[in-house]
Specification:
With 586 residues, the protein is mainly α. The protein contains 32 helices and no strands. It is 72% helix and 0% strand. It has a domain at 275-339.
């Protein structure tokens, strides 16, 4: 009954209001919901109010209305809903009331305990949070430590507080003896910028899991984060020989080498052990990024020895490697040899891209037009043909042709969210915010709960207009759907900054960066830190953003806005060799 309470209440209202066929048309007096003894009718008003408030992004009103509905219906599912929305607001008293009702209605287990721990952290009640998280970690259910991890990663508004609580749990051996759990909490300690805690975790893991190579991997990550790159490489070199027997370990070691900038070592690690097309593709990508054409050529020659059989995936991969090597004619041959099936359409799209690289634009656009008008082509491939055409026109600097490609795509697929989304971004890039907004809103008419469109429109309004309250409401709707999404938390932090709530913004942007190391998130956090006078930390975070993506648009805009150098500063000369100083003889 409770899960369909809204539909039941609506149906009751319709039935009560409808006249019976053939009956005398006597006046119908409807009972006010608040005067009814039926819980479904009594719940109708607050439940409808909750839904409307939620759709408007007014989380405080939605939480209150859900709490009222839960109390009327005595429904634990509605109490849970009220609790989860309350946790997204800043009202701890309301959250406590929702939790109390949820518990009173018979709730228990992991979800309730995790919500209680999140509230305790937010209220600064660390001792209580430690006890609740200890209970979570002691749960026999496999989700216990994962729930505790989620609370520490996203429940607190202060990374230092999360680090302190995690340190308590580690030192008192509350973490279950599961390597996956220890590795997860070790990674969290790294993201919380707590090197001392990472050291403690590494020591404990070595004690609990002697000889386990993934422990050394955590140690290498710790050394890399501490700026000890050579020491990290030594650790990785020690476990590298074991990687051939463990595909997941190989990928993890390669990722660490990649983070260290050692693309060649990352590729060599993946080259050990059994190979498949995904491994080959990753190796090719690493070699291409490293601009190691001799090694990439050797890989290409190795792969094409086995390409006589018409394996679509292998031929597609060879075409991509040929593109990396700028062997465009060979790439066209490989793509042309991909037999029928879904990969055939990918090959035709890639062929158009190669033709464009060869400055054979007419052929490229003709090939895309052929896909767009081919009735046998699946709809996703036809839509991708319009999107790729727009991208190629953008590269040509032909704005009119780019927008025409979008228009033709939407004429064929009027409700295609992907095309509308891409066109909205194109309008935003041209500073045409009204048209960008119109496209985002059309997506929301088609898909009212599109988290991507809600977040993108909310961020655009926050970043490019002064309609901050409207932006906040849109972002709140996205937060309700995906409260732990780093991109959405970043948008929330950014709109708080625009509203002048800088301290709250810093808290949220720190959370977002802890969840996902991203150039745009780092740039946002650095700007707010700079404005708040925390210049040393801001410079450090700006450099973090630059190391991830020096061309990031938000990074460059922030640096220009603050009057800081956009390009990376050159390395300072060694001590004693500054300009104008003489070096003393040894």
């Amino acid at each position: 009954m409770r899960s369909s309470l809204l539909s039941t209440a609506v149906l009751l209202a319709i039935v009560l209001a409808a006249p019976v066929a053939g009956a005398a048309q006597a006046p119908v007096v409807l009972e006010a919901p608040g005067d009814s003894n039926d819980p479904a009718v009594r719940t109708l008003e607050p439940l409808m109010a909750a839904e409307f408030a939620l759709q408007a992004g007014r989380l405080d009103e939605a939480a209150d209305a859900y709490l009222d509905a839960a109390g009327e219906a005595r429904d634990p599912m509605l109490a849970e809903r009220a609790t989860r929305i309350s946790l997204l607001t800043q009202d701890d008293a309301r959250t406590a009331r929702a939790l109390a009702l949820w518990r009173e209605l018979g709730a228990g287990g992991l979800d309730l305990l995790a919500a209680e721990a999140s509230l305790s952290l937010r209220q600064g009640q660390e001792r209580k949070a430690r006890r609740q998280l200890s209970d979570l970690l002691a749960m026999p259910a496999p989700g216990g430590w994962r729930q505790a991890f989620g609370v520490l990663a996203t429940g607190s508004h202060d990374p230092a507080q999360s680090a302190r609580v995690l340190e308590y749990l580690v030192k008192r051996d509350r973490i279950p003896l599961q390597l996956e759990a220890w590795m997860a909490f070790g990674g969290l300690a790294l993201r919380l910028d707590s090197p001392g805690l990472v050291e403690v975790i590494v020591d404990r893991v070595i004690t609990h899991f002697p000889g386990e190579p993934r422990v050394a991997l955590l140690r290498a990550s710790q050394l890399r984060e501490a700026g000890q790159a050579d020491e990290a490489r030594e650790v990785l070199a020690g476990i590298d020989p074991k990687a051939a027997r463990d595909p997941m370990l190989r990928q993890s070691i390669a990722h660490e080498y990649d983070r260290l900038g050692d693309l060649d070592l990352a590729e060599q690690t993946l080259a050990r052990g059994p190979q498949d097309d995904q491994t080959y593709a990753t190796r090719a990508s690493l070699l291409a990024r490293d601009e190691d054409k001799p090694a990439l050529t050797a890989l290409y020659d190795e792969l094409r020895q086995d390409a006589a059989a018409p394996d679509p995936a292998r031929r597609l991969l060879l075409g991509q490697i040929a593109e990396f090597l700028e062997r465009h004619e060979a790439a066209l041959d490989w793509y042309g040899g991909v037999p029928g099936g879904l990969l055939r359409w990918q090959a035709r799209l890639r062929s158009a891209n190669v033709l464009h690289e060869l400055e054979r634009g007419d052929e490229a656009y003709a090939g895309l037009n052929a896909i767009q008008t081919d009735a046998a082509a699946p709809d996703p491939a036809r839509q991708d043909a319009y999107l790729l055409e727009a991208v190629l026109h953008q590269e040509d600097g032909d704005d009119a042709a780019e927008m025409d490609a979008f228009a033709r795509g939407l004429a064929t697929f009027p409700d295609a969210p992907e095309i509308l989304y891409a066109r909205a971004l194109a309008w935003e890039r041209r500073d045409d915010i009204p048209r960008a907004e119109a496209d985002f809103r059309k997506i929301l008419v088609i898909e009212p709960d599109s988290v991507a469109a809600l977040n993108a429109l909310g961020y655009t309004l926050a970043d490019r207009t002064t309609r901050y309250q409207e932006a906040l409401e849109l972002i709140n709707r996205a937060r309700t759907a995906q409260p732990d999404n780093a991109a959405i938390i970043d948008s929330y932090g950014w709109v708080l900054y625009r509203l002048g709530r800088n301290q709250e913004a810093i808290v949220e942007l720190r959370r977002a960066l802890a969840l996902q190391e991203d150039a745009e998130i780092a740039a946002h956090l650095a700007e707010v830190l700079w404005v708040e006078g925390k210049r040393d930390e801001a410079r450090k975070v700006f450099e973090q953003s630059r190391s991830i993506d020096p061309e990031n648009r938000s990074l460059r805009r922030a640096l220009e806005k603050l009057g800081l150098p956009v390009e990376a500063p050159s390395e300072a000369p060694p001590p004693g060799e500054q300009e104008g100083e003489e070096v003393s003889p040894a």
